[in-house]
Amino acid sequence: MNVIPLPPLDRRQAATAVLAAKKRTGVRWADLGKAIGMSTEWTTAALLGQHPLTDEQAATLGAALELDQAVVDALTLPPVRGKDVVDTSEPLVYRLQEMVQVYGSTIHELVREEFGDGIVSAIDFELDVERVPDPKGDRVRITLNGKFLPYRTW
Hints:
Elements: H1 11-25, H2 29-36, H3 40-47, H4 55-65, H5 69-74, H6 91-115, E1 118-132, E2 139-150
Antiparallel strand pairs: 1-2
Helix pairs in contact: 2-3
């Protein structure tokens, strides 16, 4: 009997496997970040396919999540970024989009007034998500910290 080898996994399939393994093992995102010496936010994004992992990082995280080698190998592939990998109907993602729709022009104007004409980089960028205790119910503080890149004139 001939066995037909399965094709290699892609980053989306690896992300699905990571989410299933995380649920199965009960490992927290923060613990995975600590395991490779990276932030919780960056590590989560990497495991969801938004950043490449080194062979060593993938192996460490694969062991922590008890992943198959095919999934570990897929974690080192180039990332898949953009709107096609984000479920915009997911309520939290939808509300973040709503926040940008309502406050995007305000953020644009305030950044332009403070820095000039340009953009905020998502390449030279840091993200921080934290719980802020509040007597009316805990709040979520999301910090988006990107380098300002002025538009060049020539």
